[in-house]
Amino acid sequence: MKTDALLIYDGDCAFCKQSLKWAIDRLPTMSRYVAYQKVDFSNFGLSLADVQSQVWLIEADQKYGGHLAVSWLFRHQPTWGWRVLGLVIQAFSPLSALVYRWVAKNRHRLPGGTKECTINDQP
Asked: Which has more pLDDT, 122 or 113?
C-alpha cells in the first residue's frame, strides 16, 4: 500500500522523534514525514500553535490532527491488526482525543522526553 500523505511532526521534541522512529520501524507502510521546522506549514492552512501542539497528517485536501492522524496511519496499513487498531482509535474518538492531548501535554515527562518537548500552554 503506497501513500503520498505527509506527516508533520515536531522535530525538536525527542519524544516525537522516538514515536516516529517506532512507527517507521514497525509499520509496513509509512507516509512521508517532515519536521514542522523544515516545512512551510502555512501552505497547509496550519499555524505555529497547530504544529506545536499535535502531529498532522495531510492527504490531498484533507488534514488530520492528533489522534486522527495516528488513526489514519494505522488504518492505511496492509495488515488487518494495525487497521483494526486505527478503527478503534477512530471509533472511540472522544476518548482517543483525550488520551492524545494528555500524552502531548506530558510528553516531556514520558520516556525519551526532554525539556524541549514541553508544550507551552496557549491562552
From this structure: 113
- Map grid coordinates 496511519 to a residue: 73
Measure the CA–CA gap between 12 and 18, rounded to whole angstroms. 11
Task: Report how far apart, in Å, the C-alpha atoms of 71 and of each of 12, 33, 52, 57, 108 are.
Answer: 23, 16, 19, 10, 23
Contacts of range 42-50, beta carbons closer than 8 Å, 24 or more positions apart: 44/8, 46/8, 49/122
The average pLDDT across 16-28 equals: 91
Q: Is the pTM of this model over 0.90?
A: no
Following CA atoms 89, 96, 57, 45 in sequence, which dihedral angle do they give, to the nearest 10 degrees?
Answer: 140
User: How many beta carbons lie within 10 A of that of residue 19, not counting itself?
Assistant: 19
